[in-house]
Amino acid sequence: MGFWKTWFSTPEAVASSRTNSFEEMSAEVVGNSSSNGEGVTPPKETRIVFSTERDIDLYELEELCDAVGWSRRPLRKVKKAIEHSFLVATMWQVRGTQRRLIGFARATSDHAFNATIWDVVVHPDFQAKGLGKALMKYVLKKLRSEEISNVTLFADPHVVDFYRTMGFVADPEGIKGMFWYPQ
Amino acid sequence: MGFWKTWFSTPEAVASSRTNSFEEMSAEVVGNSSSNGEGVTPPKETRIVFSTERDIDLYELEELCDAVGWSRRPLRKVKKAIEHSFLVATMWQVRGTQRRLIGFARATSDHAFNATIWDVVVHPDFQAKGLGKALMKYVLKKLRSEEISNVTLFADPHVVDFYRTMGFVADPEGIKGMFWYPQ
Ligand SMILES: CC(C)(COP(=O)(O)OP(=O)(O)OC[C@H]1O[C@@H](n2cnc3c(N)ncnc32)[C@H](O)[C@@H]1OP(=O)(O)O)[C@@H](O)C(=O)NCCC(=O)NCCS
Ligand SMILES: CC(C)(COP(=O)(O)OP(=O)(O)OC[C@H]1O[C@@H](n2cnc3c(N)ncnc32)[C@H](O)[C@@H]1OP(=O)(O)O)[C@@H](O)C(=O)NCCC(=O)NCCS
């Protein structure tokens, strides 16, 4: 499939893991790296890989969003939103030749000053292992490389602290996030 | 100029004014409407006209932003931001054949679910006459016509009440606007 070709020819892996623990790496780790100097690649080596590839199976994405209890959205609109997002970031568990979508985030932007991050999600099986933070780091790195200076988001109350650990500040200088509801 | 052709062939005027007062109109008012049934069009009739045309003189826009004390931004980036905004709304004072840029707003979006409004400004000479509200109504109408359900913005503390008058709510259900600052 075209997907895998793109994937492995321009790997954007930043993290590698065995079972539960994972290391963040600046080097590319996709390929048959022997993982711990013992010269042996275990058959079930697990890697966490990041991508900005937009060729996402929408049903797989829906499954991921279902897993955290988000209400379903028309796939037609999800497709449109992905096409028109400035950045789409996915996180995959790769074991041998199999891959599983375990994280997602996207950002809208004017391509110049502002970006706004939406729909950050990590599959419950993979939460609380630092992977949400790794995904966000990946997103921020990509946005910075595009010279976006103002990175924003709207955080549900239970994840405000999650974003704080990454350097996000709520209501800086009294700036308020506002949502419009027809009167 | 192409600008005027587009302008008058697809008028999107929603407001008409004489000196200070103005009326919002659902009908198109651009053209030589005799304004109050007396059958006379005064030579200095003033109309306020709205547009989504992106062919904006960047120096005129810079002047408008200067007038409210915003710090200058590289025009190259302003141009890019305008190109990549989902919606660009301008407000003009039209007197005879002259036009003057007196208001501006733009929105980024994923074209499906979310839009975020940025850079809302009304020239000081025209503030506190209801024109900011009219501009925002125009923006909201355009976003709604594109089926955007979630309209958001980040409001400076001194304009939170301005947006409240239009139905914007700060921190609904505890959702927090957050800005990223590199640690
Ligand atoms: C929010 C979410 C993306 C976090 O992903 P994660 O992989 O569990 O987070 P991490 O393990 O990388 O945590 C990173 C840091 O944030 C903290 N953290 C994680 N989730 C948190 C939460 N819900 N509240 C407060 N802190 C949290 C961790 O303790 C960790 O702190 P540390 O760096 O000091 O150790 C994930 O829980 C999720 O997908 N939730 C459901 C969807 C959701 O609510 N998305 C946000 C919508 S606005
Ligand atoms: C904010 C701004 C766009 C408002 O435009 P305006 O044309 O003066 O506003 P309007 O006359 O349409 O006011 C509409 C309503 O908001 C209220 N309002 C206007 N400015 C306000 C302010 N700064 N604070 C509180 N309320 C305000 C008005 O009283 C009016 O209320 P009403 O409908 O109950 O009578 C304009 O003042 C401006 O350009 N300011 C400088 C740039 C700026 O700060 N932009 C916002 C950046 S986040």
Automatic annotation (TrEMBL), chains A, B:
SUPFAM superfamilies: Acyl-CoA N-acyltransferases (Nat) (SSF55729). InterPro entries: Acyl_CoA_acyltransferase, GNAT_dom, NSI-like. It comes from the Bacteria. The keyword Acyltransferase applies. Residues 48-183 form the N-acetyltransferase domain. PROSITE patterns: GNAT. The keyword Acyltransferase applies. Keywords: Acyltransferase, Transferase. It holds the Pfam family Acetyltransf_1. This is GNAT family N-acetyltransferase. It comes from Plectonema radiosum NIES-515.
